[in-house]
Write a structure and sequence with these properties.
Length: 92
């Protein structure tokens, strides 16, 4: 009888959600494929200009700032997914 317990490793994706490693990699590959085209690159550039690259003055309200940071998080997550897909592809 084997006394060692088999432990199943929990995979937490780059977005903080638990899912299988395979599914997490597939999501990243799907996002990367979508934004690799010229059109996808143009859309990502547009999203970046209205979120990450946008500077707000000192008079921005807490509510506005929370909204803006949520938008920035999503665009950052898309970029992180694209980078993740490239890493997965090179490690195969």
């Amino acid at each position: 009888m084997n006394s060692k317990k088999q432990t199943k490793q929990i995979n937490v994706g780059i977005d903080g959600y638990q899912r299988s490693k395979e599914l997490d990699e597939q999501i990243s590959q799907n996002v990367a494929q979508l934004f690799t085209s010229d059109t996808g690159q143009a859309v990502l550039k547009y999203l970046r200009t209205i979120t990450i690259d946008l500077v707000h003055g000192a008079n921005v309200s807490t509510e506005e700032l929370r909204h803006i940071e949520g938008q920035r998080f999503i665009v950052g997550l898309l970029n992180a997914r694209i980078n993740h897909a490239h890493k997965v592809k090179t490690n195969v």
